[in-house]
Automatic annotation (TrEMBL):
<feature type="binding site">
    <location>
        <begin position="59"/>
        <end position="62"/>
    </location>
    <ligand>
        <name>GTP</name>
    </ligand>
</feature>
<dbReference type="InterPro" id="IPR005337">
    <property type="entry name" value="RapZ-like"/>
</dbReference>
<feature type="binding site">
    <location>
        <begin position="8"/>
        <end position="15"/>
    </location>
    <ligand>
        <name>ATP</name>
    </ligand>
</feature>
<dbReference type="Pfam" id="PF03668">
    <property type="entry name" value="RapZ-like_N"/>
</dbReference>
<keyword id="KW-0067">ATP-binding</keyword>
<keyword id="KW-0547">Nucleotide-binding</keyword>
<dbReference type="InterPro" id="IPR053931">
    <property type="entry name" value="RapZ_C"/>
</dbReference>
<dbReference type="InterPro" id="IPR053930">
    <property type="entry name" value="RapZ-like_N"/>
</dbReference>
<dbReference type="Pfam" id="PF22740">
    <property type="entry name" value="PapZ_C"/>
</dbReference>
<feature type="domain" description="RapZ-like N-terminal">
    <location>
        <begin position="1"/>
        <end position="153"/>
    </location>
</feature>
<keyword id="KW-0342">GTP-binding</keyword>
<dbReference type="InterPro" id="IPR027417">
    <property type="entry name" value="P-loop_NTPase"/>
</dbReference>
<feature type="domain" description="RapZ C-terminal">
    <location>
        <begin position="160"/>
        <end position="277"/>
    </location>
</feature>
<protein>
    <submittedName>
        <fullName>RNase adapter RapZ</fullName>
    </submittedName>
</protein>
<dbReference type="GO" id="GO:0005525">
    <property type="term" value="F:GTP binding"/>
</dbReference>
<dbReference type="GO" id="GO:0005524">
    <property type="term" value="F:ATP binding"/>
</dbReference>
Length: 286
């Protein structure tokens, strides 16, 4: 089992780092008392492989419980990977001012710089034991997430392209990032032999794609997605939802979604969903 302990300075981005591990499929817990970590590890092992990756944030918020971290590090059976996040004093002070929060070691309105100094002292041994030290002083949230995923993902898809077909009569998907309307394409519904079939059938695909307007649209759509994907990745998105709709979500949208997904599945992690393909078969498409 992979066991990651995220620790470091308050304000250095531990919560953002934890979310990044969650995106990579880790079971995540924030601010778990160190003494409970070995017991939690035992519980995870009892899941018969259901939980294989765990990330836990441990820091000075644990107060008197934080001292238990030393025993956890001595536990050779656990063998955790320690990720230590830090930043310069100036950056940490600025972040505390921006969030209007007090430092955990400077309660009652104490100066953040005093709490930061105490924290560095208390975390010195933990920093020395860390496997990875990440200075987040110059990172945005998206950059920190990207750095964590690049270091730990090891084959886990850091970005997912979701392609969905849908019918406008059933509403636009609420989680769509990009919505494309293909109701301008010739409709197979009015071809007697094709009406009962769907865009999963070769005959429907051939009918839709034999028209030049469909071919031109697909080429432009592919070019646009190729342009946007690197930008979404750099911006820190974990996934994008591309929704393609026709009237009933049965013929044209299904055809285009199938072809688009196939074009990107070689280089991207792709999920394909036909939301409405089985709905309203008794109704007439327009």
């Amino acid at each position: 089992m992979k066991f990651v302990i995220i620790t470091g300075m308050s304000g250095a981005g531990k919560t953002l780092a934890l979310r990044s591990f969650e995106d990579m499929g880790y079971f995540c817990i924030d601010n778990l008392p160190p003494k409970l970590i070995p017991k939690f590890a035992e519980i995870c092992k009892e899941t018969d492989g259901e939980i294989e990756k765990v990330a836990i944030v441990v820091d000075i918020r644990g107060g008197k419980f934080f001292s238990g971290i030393s025993k956890v590090l001595e536990d050779t059976k656990l063998n955790p990977t320690i990720v230590y996040l830090e930043a310069t004093d100036d950056v940490l002070i600025r972040r505390f001012k921006e969030t209007r929060r007090t430092h955990p070691l400077a309660p009652g309105g104490g100066r953040p710089i005093e709490g930061i100094a105490k924290e560095r002292e208390q975390l010195a041994l933990l920093r020395e034991a860390a496997n990875h030290i990440v200075d987040t002083s110059e990172f945005t949230g998206h950059q920190l997430s990207k750095a964590i995923k690049e270091k730990f993902q090891k084959g886990y898809p850091s970005f997912t392209v979701n392609v969905m077909s849908f019918g406008f009569r059933y509403g636009i998907p609420h989680d769509a990032d990009l919505v494309f309307d293909v109701r301008f394409l010739p409709n197979p519904h009015y071809i007697q032999d094709l009406q009962p079939k769907t865009g999963d059938d070769k005959e429907v695909q051939q009918y839709v794609m034999k028209h030049k307007v469909a071919q031109d649209f697909l080429k432009k759509l592919e070019d646009m997605v190729n342009f946007l994907l690197p930008l979404y990745k750099d911006e820190g998105k974990a996934q994008v939802m591309i929704a393609i709709g026709c009237t009933g979500g049965k013929h044209r949208s299904v055809t285009l979604a199938n072809i688009l997904a196939e074009k990107f599945e070689e280089n991207e992690n792709v999920n394909l969903l036909h939301r409405d393909v089985t709905k309203g078969r008794e109704k007439v498409e327009r």
